[in-house]
Amino acid sequence: MLSAQGSMSTRTLEATLAQIHAEVQPLFGRGKVADYIPALAQVPSQQFGMAVALVDGTTCSVGDAHVPFSLQSITKLFAFVMALKTVGDALWLRVGREPSGAAFNSMVQLETEHGIPRNPFINAGALVVTDILTTRYAHLDYALLGALRRLTDDPDLTWNMRIAKSERENAHRNMALAYFMKSYGNFVNPPELVLDNYCRQCATEMSCAQLAQATMFLANDGLDIGRNGAPGEQFLAADEARRVNALMLTCGAYDAAGDFAYRIGLPVKTGVGGGIVAIAPGRGTVAVWSPELDAKGNSVLGAFALERLVQLGWSARLKSDA
Ligand code: GLN
Known about the structure:
- The structure is a single chain.
- This protein folds into 2 domains: 184 residues, DD-peptidase/beta-lactamase superfamily (Beta-lactamase), CATH 3.40.710; 130 residues, Beta-lactamase (3-Layer(aba) Sandwich).
- It is 47% helix and 12% strand.
- The strands form 4 sheets. The protein has a 5-stranded antiparallel beta sheet with strand order 3-2-10-9-8.
- Strand 6 and strand 7 form a beta hairpin.
- The radius of gyration is 19 Å and the shape is globular.
- The N terminus and C terminus are likely disordered.
- The site of glutamine has 11 residues, from loops.
- Glutamine (GLN) binds next to loops.
């Protein structure tokens, strides 16, 4: 449904995205592409894409918004949603929902907190989520892929085998986290099996345009809007969508979550592939990607672009157009 007002907001948004695209250019070189997963280090750094999807079906994008990139920790969001749908509140017996204030791959809190990770978005918490799902699904990798293919309407969506293998061969720290949690009785399956699933999950590739579409249900009370004449799907209960957004706001950017909330003020999930997705409940979603990361593992250009988008009046404009 693209009304005259809708097309007006699209034009405004197009100009805003073009302006941001120009403004980010001088920032190339300020960050560093992730290299602890060797295959990720080979991604050309000078890329930037941004896509916005509104709940009325309008979409708008700029730059490399249709280039697939490695989702990495952004997949923790989808795995967490899948676990909520599968086991519900039982999830909270094995993982907390407090910000950690520590690096995404930190293990320091695990000892004093008896193997219960602070939240589902740090690596330890995501590994527990993948462990829970590994128990429920015989082929978790394909189950997750199936859900993502449905959300993006892209039957060809897949993981990058080279990146999955590269992470798996270097997953010493994540393996240590899994074994450490197992020593506390908070890990059910063999860590090797869960790590196989986790590394494939993290290596899933999507473009900004696809990521904005795939997260639409979080901006829309759990309802994924229908496209191309197809009916919408209640992907998650409205209450649960609200809770996922709360977790993203408080924990979605690890030890930079407070800074992101202050600068951008929207629920986000970041990944070391350089992607960030932000949710504006009731309005729409924004996905941004640029591979150079800051010291906390978040995209330098991506964070700047999101901050500029909210500063330029994105939310206010959409509100008055609605
Ligand atoms: N696969 C990466 C890891 O486990 C994801 C980390 C991230 O994106 N922050 O280290």
